[in-house]
Amino acid sequence: MKNEIKNFETPSQEAPEKQSQSQKIERKFLVKSLPENLEQYPHKDIVQGYLAIAEDGTEVRLCQKGKKYFQTVKNDSGKNRFESEIEISEEQFNSLWRATKGKRVEKTHYEIPYKNRVIGLDVYHSDLDGLLSAEIEFSNEKDNNKFIPPKWLSKEVTEDKRYKNQNLALHGIPKQKQTQAEQQKEKIDAPGYKFEKGITKLVDSIKEKMTKCEGNIVIEIAGGSASGKTSAVTNTIKKIFGTNALVLSTDDYYYGKTFMDAEAEKGNKLNWDQPEALNLNLFRQHLAQLKSGKSIEKPIYDMKINEPIGTEKMNPKKLIIAEGLFALDEKLKNEGDIKVFVDTGIHGRLIRRLLRDIQRTNQKPADILRYFSQVVEPMHKKYIENTKKNADLIINNEYSPKVEAKRSGLHEIQLKFQGTLDADSLRKLGAEKLSTTTQIDKYYNPKDRNLIQTGEILRIREEGKRKTLTYKGPKIKSQFRERPKFEFEIDADTENAFLNICGDMKKIITKERTLYQLDGVVFSLDNVLKNEDGKNVNLGKFIEIRSTDRELYSEKIKSVIKKLGLNMNEGVKESYFEM
Fold first, then answer.
1. Residue ranges making up the domain that contains 428
2. Fewer CB within 10 Å: N-end or C-end of the chain?
3. Does 387 lie in the same domain as 421?
């Protein structure tokens, strides 16, 4: 590595001849809490990557500050540092930038006035999100020795090499050694309640706070996507407290598509489920202002075009409900008087998101599933799940299939009879043969739920080259086998996305199926084989009548059953999966 730096050719011949050399004393601290009204101070976004790092810590790095680009050589020996920096062109920067992959740091640098000097505050982003540090420069040892840090700074890490930007770029955020008391506190979970009891506990806590506190109070409600934090918990609390409550949603603080595209051009590709896509600093400031009785100009965000389109004045109220994915983020947690996490398992969040977004966004179900698996769930594990530790109260809002599956808008109505029918007899009755096919149905169980107990079904059907994913809710009481359902065709990528979530295959049902139609009703002759725990069982032959038209089945299906010479009382309501 030493040779890499010694022989590294700087592009100084084509770069502007701006060069600086300096010797200085720097001290670095971790940050306990951010100063108020942070955005009022001068700040800039910095992206830097490392071309080479020697064994003694000497580094060659690239850095973009606004629209300016620099190449720096720097060595480090504790408090005394030496560095040489030259400004380079954008083209030179871009040509070298690829070599820094996997060795980058992204942060916003603030200049905070403090007495007769300036503190440089760094708020890190991307993989280093949550890390806050501050540096102060001194021209001599006398000034350094006289310095008394402000209260918002905490532990000094000047001599801790783990907090050097080069090591942060290589190894990420250092793991902190916790005291025994801190370790015990980390293990203690907030009390968890089912939805109804959780709401009761929450309402009681709010009323108690409102009675004891003269000013405004803030309740923070976080949780995963489609956990019900907005539709269930927030809306319920808002309804109970009426005109005394207002809702401030983190959704209104997205930077927007223009910002995301600009970041992508810089090599910083963001997604909508990570905190860097939102202006959480502004959200925190607005929350503090409302709590102190001041009005704010809240952003108005248009979800259809994914852009902020203006602002609106929002006046403070006694109860301020701050809700959203990141409402209990490290940047926001200290603003809440009561902190709530709405907890829902992965199966429930996935099915709810499918049911919700199919209707709300007109997205294709396969696209929703892929995005959930590839983006939403990884971001949930990285950024959302761990904020549960910041909660005072956990409300378990599990998916209720008996109630929520009905939102699918589609029902299957089926009844099967053991046995078979003669092809000649069917022709004489006027039945039309539609097709003969082989269907392989693979049934799965999610990692966090037993669908046999809940009465749900998840399956992938293979029919030739075509694959279909089907979800079925619990049976509805009926003289037939009736279930809410939705299904959609999937490709290999979508199948892999599904298997990442529900990879526990329980059974395989193989059917040799011949489809017929009689008087507008479709039925099939099935020869069925079941494979469970590696063992094949021949379930036999069946006639299965089906429909998705709830108005049609009651009379027309009965008529066809009678015409086929079958007895309704001998109908089998169990699915092949249940046999």
1. 403-570
2. N
3. no
Using alpha carbons, list the distances in angstroms from residue 5 to 2, 74, 93, 144, 169. 5, 10, 17, 31, 18
Q: Is 576 inside a domain boundary?
A: no
Run of H or E including 493 = helix 492-501
Q: Same domain for 214 and 353?
A: yes
* pLDDT tens digits, 162-220: 998 888 988 888 876 544 444 444 454 688 999 999 999 999 999 999 998 888 999 99
Cβ contacts of 91-99, under 8 Å, gap ≥ 24: 92/11, 92/14, 92/15, 93/62, 93/64, 93/69, 96/11, 96/51, 96/62, 96/71, 97/49, 97/62, 97/267, 99/49, 99/51
Cα(368)–Cα(376) distance, integer angstroms: 10
The span from the CA of 158 to the CA of 176, in Å, is 15
Tell me, yes or no, whether 225 and 164 share the same domain: no
Q: Are 417 and 482 in contact (CB under 8 A)?
A: no
> Length of the chain in residues, anyone?
579
pTM over 0.70? The answer is no
Q: How far apart are CA 484 and CA 401, in angstroms?
A: 10
Rounded CA-CA distance 272/242 in Å is 31
Two structure tokens written together for 534: 């590696």
